[in-house]
Amino acid sequence: MKIIEFLLSALAIGVTFLYGSTGEIITEKAGHLNLGIPGIMGIGAACGCAALSVMIPAGADPLLPAWLIVIIALLATLIGGALMGLLYSFLAVTLRSNQNVTGLAMTIFGTGLTKYIFNALEKKDASYLRALPFFRFPFNNTSSALQYCGILVFIGIGVAIAASLILTRTRVGLHLRAVGESPATADAAGINVTRYKYIATIIGSAIAAVGGLFYVMDYQGSKEAYLSVEAMGWLSVALVIFSLWRPYLSIIGSFVFGAMFILGSYLPSFGVIIEPTIIKMLPYVVTIIVLIITSIRNRRENQPPASLGVSYFREDR
Amino acid sequence: MASEHHTTVKEPLIHITKNAAMPFWKGLLIRATAVVAAFLFCSLLAALFIGANPGEFIRAFIEGNFGGGAWSLARIRIWELIKGTAILLIISLAVTPAFRMRFWNIGAEGQVLISALASAAVVYYGKGIKQEWLLLVLMLIAAVAAGIIWAAIPAIFKALWNANETLFTLMMNYVATLSVAYFLVIWTKDKNGSSSLGELQRGHLPSFGNTYLVFTIIVLLTTAFMFVYLYYSKHGYEISVVGESQRTARYIGINVKKVIVRTMILSGAICGLTGFMLVAALDHTITVDTVGGRGFTAIIVSWLANFNPLIMIGTALLVVFLNLGAGQLATTFRVSNAFPDVVVGIVIFFVIGCEFFIRYKVHFRHKNRHAAGAIHSGSDHGNDQENAAPAPAIPDKGGKLK
User: Fold this and answer.
1) pTM of the prediction?
2) Mean pLDDT in each 10-residue stretch from start to end of chain B (402 residues)?
3) Across the interface, do A234 and B178 touch by the CB < 8 Å criterion?
4) Is residue A148 part of a domain?
5) How many domains does chain A have?
6) Is residue A312 part of a domain?
7) Inter-chain CB proximity B161 and A292 less than 8 Å
8) CA B347/CA B213 separation, integer angstroms
9) What is the DSSP letter of B211?
10) Residue A93 belongs to a domain with what CATH number?
11) Cβ contact, residue pair A91, B385, below 8 Å
12) Does A304 touch chain B (CB under 8 A)?
């Protein structure tokens, strides 16, 4: 039974990375390396939990039915993420600032604000934690069968599949990829480059933000969870490389990452003694190896979008 | 698109062109305005959310950086300010040469941390080394070697196979962090439960005058070296050419691969020096937070200074000043100690935004042309996102957050 618990747990933690990487893939397909993902995931968690603690006052019954609480919290998270995406797009697309600098500033600001908000929530007895069972599959379910996988796990996989289909099978996806590969060509073909960049970044950030809420409310479900959201964000960025910028591969990748992430704490029960920190290094090392192999093989379809990290200015030569 | 139906050329409301040469003082004025505007915005936020009136806000910044009244306290605070600036400055210097050739090395965090680990490892395993000076030399060598290895690996893969350096160096950061975590577990195994290493008893760099004086002098020397290296040496020239255009560099006979690897080795060596100083001169211990995100902040500091080592002294000072001041504010008003990050983030957003007005020129639609084109374009803004660009000189991006 330990092995099933391990696999389900790997799936669950993997979904955190799945949300983050799906959001980041959509953004990167538009040619924007958003290093603000860790901050955005934190802000997502903070907005969702702030909404939860308003709806569930300390020491009183929830004001709304469970399903409505979950939906409103999700909306708050999506709005928080979208606003961060809007800020990033305004700086990096309209004002054409350096993407690395903008992204890192977003992470510094985002993680700072996240801690600030959660500290304020703790003063209100961290009442958001009482919404934890609401995120279990059929709302407010406490049965053991689905104790590892709440509704957000299934939504996350659905979002990744949808993103994959949109990117590869629709005109919008084609245009988006064109913008990321060669914005000048896309511009000449009549695609509104700025609009695509804005929308992709905002949607991507909103999706990534849900990963933060999922991690704090569903997977981790503890008072200290918000402190480690940043690390989850960086792992999500790693997963983008690992899955070669393809959302459907990142479903598998997220499971692999999840398994590597928690393997350390399960190994003793399988009778293997290795220091857990070494195991935790695996996702990063494997990502580096994937990065090296793909660049040596140099297959066009496994590379990052060609204009990744470069701001587009129409009058540049 | 409505515009497809008529043939008149649509004149966009705002037209943006590159701003080739702006006088230095004018650029400085725009940046200063942005910082002041950001500062005012932060004081507004502080008044709204933590109830600090502008007077208290300014006092916190003065107390946090220069102490209040008593000279003994002021001296401690000012040295803290200098120390913080020096650490941030030297890491910023380390990332700068690579940035000037558009090699986006965001791995300074890991490079410094792994060097600090190497230094600490020399102290931990070098119990048999009797002479203190020999120990220090070995620590320095180990640290610089570790920093160079951590920086050279991504550089070699970039030079040979064009592996994305941003993502590669980012991953190396976490390998470094987890390596430190791993060795801390091993080193503290027999100290039941505690995972903190405690103070290292040996390998302290001798200090005279103030504890931070030696460190500060070394950082200033590095700054001078880096300025001369980048602006007055052949290497510095090659770096600039590679940054402008790799094709031009190849055409005039510069070995681009060599320049990339050589520059990253220099970056790694300075990170190594920093890691050594953190262990030998400042902290005398190591934790996973020894660098504490300064490797990332340094990237912003370097960029804000337009990759100029001398201006970097100012930008590093600004960031540390904000951090200490906001930290004092957070202590006085008992709010989260993450508050400084929020303040620094907001100020950086303002400065990042204002760079646009230095690098680009905004032209509004010409008056009399406007009259002619108004019939068609007046109501048709839909397919031009440039409309989102703000008209005022200082964008109120903070306002977007709320």
Assistant:
1) 0.85
2) 53 76 81 90 86 82 79 83 93 93 90 94 86 90 95 92 87 91 84 68 77 88 94 92 88 90 94 93 86 89 90 92 88 83 90 86 67 43 40 39 32
3) no
4) yes
5) 1
6) no
7) yes
8) 29
9) T
10) 1.10.3470
11) no
12) yes
